[in-house]
Specification:
The chain is elongated, with a radius of gyration of 32 Å. The protein has 463 residues and is an alpha+beta fold. The longest helix has 30 residues. A hairpin with a 3-residue loop joins β20 and β21. It has 3 domains: 177 residues, HUPs (Rossmann fold, 3-Layer(aba) Sandwich); 97 residues, Uridine Diphospho-n-acetylenolpyruvylglucosamine Reductase, domain 3; 127 residues, Phenylalanyl-tRNA Synthetase, Chain B, domain 3.
């Protein structure tokens, strides 16, 4: 029965073709042992090669070492080659501040990929079954996952990872093993309540089977299949919108909000979900609340609004763009005194200030409004001068005006990107701001007919 169901699943999803070389992940538990036996019985039919991969996670001491020995002996009995490896999962989990479950999963699939490449294989087969599917769907539902989470475990991924037992129940697998007197190992941690999945497996699903639907596992598996079809369609639509609105490079995303507003509300959320998943990592769950909060910043907040998403990610609205990345955090304030005359590096601003005291007046091409050089009447300045970071509430009198204006408003007028404002140095004397370097200078200390000593300040950017 199990072999027939597995073969039907293989055919349904086109999991195998003649000549495939398959890495089979075998832990020693009932699911993976059954998978190995079934694939071994089908290898002549499909003309495939098999290679076993076993990762000993170092979590259960001698018990997991015995698992590795069991799998190695099993492969010897079946004349199948094996690659095994040992890891210190708990230590790695602590160092990366992740759960043991998530770390074990990452290490396992990374190891499978290593074996795939070293053996020149093209498929990775895992023993996930219908019960795993139901557990995953319920876990994601309880966490408030979106459509992608409700798809659950895909039968086949990118033509590389295949799960021939995904439509078979755990009861089917145990019946198959018992009927053939095939031995297997039991992972003692499967009974520990500290793991979420175990609580769903041993508490929630039995309760649902007893109180609501005795075939809840089949029901959840069918539901995941339905969501998978819908999600595949939506994925195509989302990718079209992402291609038209979003640029992702070097760990940062830039989304054109005018274009995004033209998409249906459902796609707007899914685009944000897609972008956040790509930046967070595909194994991270992005909650509905986070998506809503980011969407609010994108569509209903003013330029400059930001939200801390978590994991170091920040979403920031910058005019008609939404920026998402880890390098958008506010830069620490700086305040550096300038040598007059002399050269002063200002590292946070990404450049060096060169101050010169001159007597010759600048030519008619002197630039007051912008540029990397500004001239001042030295006698009208209250030394010392400093270069510091912009502060909310900064005001000064721009050149040519009689009243003060917020530096923030100057940035807006000049279309200075929000992410670049913290690096633009503000030059001050004892009485206030005299120059937004490279953007606009002040009315104060302007050069007049009676000016005798002139201070020339040039900002040379690094590189």
């Amino acid at each position: 029965m199990l072999t027939r169901t597995a073969r039907a699943t293989i055919e349904k999803y086109g999991m195998l073709k003649k000549g495939d070389r398959v890495v089979v992940g075998v832990s020693g538990g009932p699911d993976s042992v059954a998978l190995l036996h079934i694939l071994n019985s089908l290898k002549e039919i499909y003309k495939i090669g098999l290679h076993v991969a076993h990762l000993e996670h170092g979590i259960r001491g001698s018990e997991s070492v015995e698992d590795m020995k069991f799998v190695e002996d099993l492969c010897g009995d079946l004349s199948i080659r094996i690659t095994s490896k040992q890891e210190k999962t708990e230590k790695i989990a602590r160092a990366s501040n992740q759960s043991v479950e998530a770390t074990a999963r990452k290490l396992r699939y990374s190891f499978f990929q290593e074996v795939l490449e070293s053996t020149k294989s093209n498929r990775i087969a895992t023993g996930h079954n219908a019960n795993d599917q139901a557990e995953t769907l319920l876990l994601n539902l309880l966490r408030g996952s979106g459509m992608a989470g409700l798809v659950g475990i895909r039968p086949a991924m990118q033509g590389r990872i295949i799960r021939p037992l995904i439509e078979s129940t755990r009861a089917d697998i145990e019946e198959y093993l018992n009927s053939k007197s095939i031995t297997y190992r039991i992972d003692s941690t499967n009974a520990e309540g500290r793991f979420e999945r175990n609580r769903v497996r041993h508490l929630l699903i039995p309760m649902l089977e007893k109180e609501f639907n005795p075939r809840i596992v089949d029901c959840m598996a069918r539901t995941a299949s339905i969501f998978s079809v819908v999600n595949d369609y939506l994925h195509g639509e989302v990718e079209k919108v992402v291609a038209a609105t979003t640029l992702i490079e070097e760990g940062r995303a830039s989304i054109d909000l005018e274009s995004l507003k033209g998409a249906p509300a459902a796609l707007q959320r899914l685009v944000l979900y897609r972008v956040l998943r790509s930046l967070e990592g595909d194994d991270q769950v992005v909650s509905f609340d986070i998506i809503n909060a980011v969407l609010n910043v994108a569509m209903r907040s003013r330029s400059g609004s930001r939200i801390d998403i978590g994991s170091g990610l920040v979403a920031l609205r910058e005019f008609d763009k939404l920026l998402i990345g880890r390098d958008l955090a506010l830069v620490e304030r700086y305040d550096v005194q300038l040598a007059i005359p002399g050269s002063t590096p200002v590292e946070p601003a990404g450049g060096t200030f060169i101050a010169e005291v001159i007597s010759e007046r600048p030519g008619t091409g002197e630039v007051y409004r912008s540029g990397e050089t500004a001239y001042f009447d030295l006698s009208q300045l209250e030394l010392p001068l400093c270069a510091r970071s912009w502060r909310e509430g900064d005001r000064f009198v721009p050149f040519g005006l009689s009243g003060t204006k917020k530096v923030h408003d100057i940035f807006v007028d000049e279309k200075v990107p929000i992410t670049g404002r913290s690096k633009i140095p503000i030059i001050c004397d004892g009485d206030g701001i005299i120059w937004i370097a490279g953007v606009r200078r002040s009315e104060r200390a302007r050069i007049k007919d009676d000016t005798r000593t002139i201070l020339k300040i040039t900002f040379e950017k690094d590189g």
